[in-house]
Amino acid sequence: MDTSAPQDALSRPLGRQVLVLALPALAQQYLHLVVQLSDQFLAGRFQVSDPAARVGYLSALNTAGYLYWFVSSYTVLVSVGSTALVARFVGARDFALANRAAGQSIVLAVVFGVVGAVAALVGLPDLIRALKLEGDAARVCVEFLTPLAALLAFQITESACAACLAGAGDTRTGLKVLGLVAVLNVPLAWGLCFGFGPFRGFGFIGIALGTGLSHVIGCITLLVILSRGRSGLKLHLANLVPDTGLIRRLLWVSVPAAIDSLSAAFCQLWFLSIVNRLGDTAASAHGIALRWEALGFLSGAAFGTAAMTLVGQNLGARTPDRAARSVWVAFAIGGGLMCCMGVLFVLLAEPMFKVFCPGADLQPIVDTGAPALRLIACAMPALASQIIFTAALRGAGDARVPVLFSWLGFLGVRIPLAYLMTAPQVDLGPLGTVRGADMGLLGAWVAMCADLWLRGTFFALRFASGKWKKIEV
Hints:
cell membrane; 473 residues; Multidrug-efflux transporter; 79% helix
């Protein structure tokens, strides 16, 4: 094992350090997006005789995408603590503890994965009904998510392994494995959906089955890589024996971050239920706009990974001022890239929608969703702030106060404003009714932008205060 490489990396210029970590993570995030866009592309071309049913499939995939996003929030129960602790131990050059933390992260991932899979398989139908999805769209959504739920433990373990490697300063291995996942996903999803040779395929659920199986392969590949030793980390069986002290330290960081992410995910599902009330056309347009908006969001997530790793390693090396500077550099580069994505949304919104909406029967989705995609461009700086500073604070172990920011943004701004902006009137119960803006999907995205600007400001101020420098994990 090369145990000097992570320490040598801390002496590089900050801009180079950020890019060395962020660019592979960015490619990794975009490979995730390729998987999602491939699924969306397949759904848009899934042939059914009734055009309305075709819109229903897109609506179902939108709701499924939100719930799959919920899975990403669930993985935070393991991934944030993994990156933060491994980075601290690597920064302090305690590689025995770094290896031990990686092993305990995998144990937690398997446990949370199994629990989450059982809960999802039992509760999916009731959850879909609560999200106001009805009829064939609801049935298709449950069928689509079932194989993903059954294979959830593999995806969470895959995420934990990649998080540990990122904490050690290795984002390239995760990129290579996610590249494998993306390359496998496309033929698997197409083949299992439409069939090949004498095999007729499973139809719409074959898309999800292909995605789930590709993550199984990715998980196994990462476990093999860790068992052979990479970036100062080497997985031994002895490190998989539960260590309550280390598990407690992992959860001390991860649980508040997971509460933040999961509460945000619940609020996102609430927000989705408001959008779903607007009908299948609005729901489909919302889902496609989110897929493209991910070009900006995932860029921020990649630079957030770099910020989290560098904060942890520099705090472990007792250089908090350098930790702060590295995050501001990550925000400057990542935020600039996200603003460039915003320009693309403004200029190319309609062509981007038409990629997934071929044919005149889907033109209403384009007309509904393109204005929303253009609108989100104005929130790219705020979204960059929220994502990158949140990741940096989590890397420092400061995950409790930010939960309050998320609750304020969603419950104080996004949700009530979404009701007000989307409907012709809002029923306040015993207080009567108030007139709404009746802006449809565009009104929902106005509420989203207002929330992002509020939270982006709060997270930037929290990081600038420097209180995170004194937190022990």
